[in-house]
């Protein structure tokens, strides 16, 4: 099964919420919810609930500008 975007995280010391929202829109990724409590140093945009993800299938792509895109397989 192909991997999908599970979450996108932006380092708070490099990205404001406004900037990260703009990045999400420019990349056609829905803005569903920002998790500011679990990830203290990040603004995290969850796309898929972790309960819907197969264990051990996570892959993280880090960009040079402080964005982390987490991919995973759905159950």
- Give the percentage of residues in beta strands: 25-35%
End-to-end distance: 9 Å
Unreliable spans are none
Specify Rg, calculated over alpha carbons.
Answer: 12 Å
Sheet bearing the most strands, described? 5 strands, antiparallel
Average pLDDT confidence is 90
Following the backbone from N to C, one meets helices and strands in this order, namely EHEEEE
Overall tally of domains:
1
**Which of globular, elongated, flat, extended, rod-shaped describes the shape?**
globular
Main-sheet strand order equals 2-3-1-5-4
Number of helices: 1
Indicate the structural class: alpha+beta
Please tally the β strands and state the result. 5
Q: What share of the residues lie within helices?
A: 10-25%
Description of the structure:
The chain is built from 1 helix and 5 strands. It is α+β, with helices and mostly antiparallel strands. It has one domain (4-72). The protein has a 5-stranded antiparallel sheet with strand order 2-3-1-5-4, with no helix packed on it. The longest helix is centred in the N-terminal third of the chain and has 10 residues, at 17-26. The radius of gyration is 12 Å and the shape is globular. The termini are close together. The mean pLDDT is 90.
